[in-house]
Amino acid sequence: MASESEHKATIIDGKQIAQTVRSEIAEEVKKLSEKYGKVPGLAVVIVGSRKDSQSYVNMKRKACAEVGIKSFDFDLPEQVSEAELISKIHELNANPEVHGILVQLPLPKHINEEKVLSEINIEKDVDGFHPLNIGKLAMKGRDPLFLPCTPKGCLELLSRSGISIRGKKAVVMGRSNIVGLPVSLLLLKADATVTIVHSRSVNPESVIREADIVIAAAGQAQMVCLALQSLVFAFPILLFEYLFKFTENIDFDS
Ligand SMILES: Nc1nc2c(c(=O)[nH]1)N[C@@H](CN(C=O)c1ccc(C(=O)N[C@@H](CCC(=O)O)C(=O)O)cc1)CN2
């Protein structure tokens, strides 16, 4: 267990790191454009009019524009059928200008999220939510084509802040498919000793007190009052990490 004197918080400047990543991506896109005469294309699909989802999607689209990625925007009505949405995905799978497909979650209740995400071509699955990509993330010695952006953003913040993960005790708060679970798998791949605490955990505080790294992934402000290495996650880094991994995986030669 860390001693009391080691309980000093280090605030990570996510915005600053995001700015660096943003510049790196813009440079990468420029090089791709000069070499191949084309730029990465990201299809962003949103269903319905949830204000929070719209705001995330707008940020993603704006981020694309800022770094030179072409975004293809599809705003589908709340009532769109599952079949229509899947047909749109098939159309995007077949479009050579679209290198990545992102379906904003959550989807309306009448649409089966698992089914829809499974229809995305794994080579365009920039969210890394396709069962094959998640499956590879969960297995030793396998590498997914893409990683979910928020978990990847968390690890990028740690790495760019000079915080090593190997051998550390990492505690993840929350077990969602989007953040908690995949970030736990990523930390495990990075050789941390990982514990997940969630709504049914008994005495989570005692587990958190033992941690070297705490990742709060339960979407509730002020959830962690103690953290040995305090992490402040700023959304931009996640967004730009998203684009980062996205450009990394495009095969412009095919
Ligand atoms: N297709 C996807 N849908 C959704 C994703 C996703 O990664 N892909 N994630 C969320 C929504 N989302 C991005 O789209 C997102 C929401 C919230 C955050 C976040 O870091 N929130 C912080 C607050 C950050 C801040 O306000 O500065 C927090 O909750 O502590 C990141 C991404 C669901 N849908």
Describe the overall structure.
The chain is of the alpha/beta class. It has two domains: 36-125, Rossmann fold (3-Layer(aba) Sandwich), CATH 3.40.50.10860; 148-237, Rossmann fold (3-Layer(aba) Sandwich). Helix content is 43%, strand content 13%. The chain has nine helices and six strands. The strands form two sheets. A three-stranded parallel β-sheet has the order 2-1-3, with helices on both faces. It has a three-stranded parallel β-sheet with strand order 5-4-6. It is globular, with a radius of gyration of 19 Å. 40% of the residues are buried. The model is unreliable at 226-245 (pLDDT under 50). Ligand LMY7XDAE binds at residues 56, 102-105, 127, 149-150, 178, 219, 233-235, 238.
Provide tags for this entry.
254 residues; binds the ligand Nc1nc2c(c(=O)[nH]1)N[C@@H](CN(C=O)c1ccc(C(=O)N[C@@H](CCC(=O)O)C(=O)O)cc1)CN2; Rossmann fold; methenyltetrahydrofolate cyclohydrolase activity; three-stranded parallel β-sheet; single chain; multifunctional enzyme; alpha/beta; THF_DH/CycHdrlase_cat_dom
